[in-house]
Amino acid sequence: KEIKKFDSRLNKLVKLRKKINAIPVFITQKSLRHKIIDNKIYSIDKTNYYHKEKIISETIIDNCKKNKIFCIDLFNKIEFQNDSFYDLVHTSPKGANLIANKIFNEIGIILHNF
């Protein structure tokens, strides 16, 4: 139910961008609230954050495909270290640089193919 609401909000953003003739780029993300070690998922508590973040990421990517808009999949394309974050969700300068470099490179690919 919540994912359907989220997808609906993404669709609304797509419609709004058409009104202002903008080119949207949706970007997925992830946190350090989970780790995968030897193919086993570990979480900070009983919540499966990996699953939640994966579902959100997949919803964003599916919406991008459906609406033919650009998407940068940081959830699957970026690997963080512990020092990439101040806490489990807020990036340190090292983490922010990692994200910025990945987005910069991905936008370069998008523009090259545009």
Strand tally: 4
State the distance separating the first and last CA atoms.
35 Å
Fraction in beta strands: 5-15%
Q: What's the order of the H and E elements? A: HEEEHEHH
Secondary structure category: alpha+beta
User: Counting H and I runs of at least 4 residues, what is the number of helices?
Assistant: 4
Strand order of the largest sheet: 1-4
**What would the principal axes of the Cα set say about the shape?**
globular
Give a description of the structure.
- The model has no long low-confidence stretch (mean pLDDT 92).
- 54% of the residues lie in helices and 14% in strands.
- Helix 1 packs parallel to helix 2.
- The chain is an alpha+beta fold and 114 residues long.
- Strand 2 and strand 3 form a beta hairpin.
- It has a two-stranded parallel ribbon with strand order 1-4. Strands 2-3 form a two-stranded antiparallel sheet.
- It has 4 helices and 4 strands.
Keywords:
single chain, 114 residues, alpha+beta, two-stranded parallel ribbon, two-stranded antiparallel sheet, 4 strands, 54% helix, 14% strand
Summarize the structure.
This protein is α+β, with helices and mostly antiparallel strands and 114 residues long. It has 4 helices and 4 strands; from the N terminus they run αβββαβαα.
Secondary-structure blueprint:
Layout (H helix, E strand, L loop, with lengths): L1 H18 L5 E4 L5 E4 L2 E4 L5 H19 L2 E4 H4 L15 H21 L1
Parallel strand pairs: 1-4
Antiparallel strand pairs: 2-3
